[in-house]
Amino acid sequence: MKVFKIANLCALGAALAFTSVGCKHHEPAVTKIPNGGLNGSDNGPGPAGALPGGDLAGGAPTGGGPLSDINPDNMNQDRNAFSADIVYFDYDSAAIKGSESSKLEAVASALKSDSSADLLIEGNCDERGTEEYNRALGERRALASREALANAGIDASRVVTRSYGQDKPADSGHNESAWHKNRRDEFVLLHPK
């Protein structure tokens, strides 16, 4: 009986020793993104975004710069001004193709000629991928266009971005032709009311 008690005490001691040590928890490695993730690649900012004011929920404005007070919902929106300048993206990419750069040049030129105008960039995706992933990808696409406009001389505080992910398809089909039309940035000209 005495041996049984000693064995139980030893087992209890060993169990306590193992539970107090436990397994060491390793944090996942963080990948550094060059240029703050604003290089137009798929390595852009995730849902938190690299710019202040980021809120991806429900297609809310996410950019506009640290001091921007642009609220597209309180402005006159001209959705036809840049209807010929929609920028299209490759699958799972936020990189702006060379064939799309002339469209961004046209948008920049229009903004340079109208200093009272601001711009809303709406990033969109096709239906493939999760809702969260597509919101983040739509935001990276909008930020890539915003960066290209800033590189063309447009003050980034005049531009606000919004990601709709897969929520606003241009084509409701379920094939490559439809998906190509849905992977896009649309530009909305904004004027004060």
Task: Record keyword descriptors for this entry.
193 residues, five-stranded mixed beta sheet, alpha+beta, 60s Ribosomal Protein L30, Chain: A
Description of the molecule:
The protein is an alpha+beta fold and 193 residues long. It has one domain (34-192): 60s Ribosomal Protein L30, Chain: A, CATH 3.30.1330. It has helices at 2-21, 101-113, 131-151, 176-182; strands spanning 75-78, 87-88, 118-124, 159-165, 184-192. Strands 1, 2, 3, 4 and 5 form a five-stranded mixed β-sheet that branches. The longest helix has 21 residues, at 131-151. It starts with a helix and ends with a strand. The model is unreliable at 18-58 (pLDDT under 50).
Write the layout of secondary structure elements.
Elements: H1 2-21, E1 75-78, E2 87-88, H2 101-113, E3 118-124, H3 131-151, E4 159-165, H4 176-182, E5 184-192
Parallel strand pairs: 3-4
Antiparallel strand pairs: 1-5, 2-5, 3-5
- The average pLDDT score comes to 78
**Which architecture would the CATH scheme give at its second level?**
2-Layer Sandwich
The top level CATH class name: Alpha Beta
Total count of domains: 1
Overall shape: extended
Report the uncertain regions.
18-58
The fraction of residues in strands falls at: 15-25%
Helix content: 25-40%
**What is the N-to-C order of secondary-structure elements (H for helix, E for strand)?**
HEEHEHEHE
Measured on Cα atoms, how large is the radius of gyration? Answer: 25 Å
Supply the CATH superfamily name.
OmpA-like domain
Note the quaternary state here. Answer: single chain
CATH topology: 60s Ribosomal Protein L30, Chain: A
Q: What's the number of extended β-strand segments?
A: 5
- First and last CA, distance: 90 Å
- Structural category is alpha+beta
Instruction: Supply the number of helical segments.
Output: 4
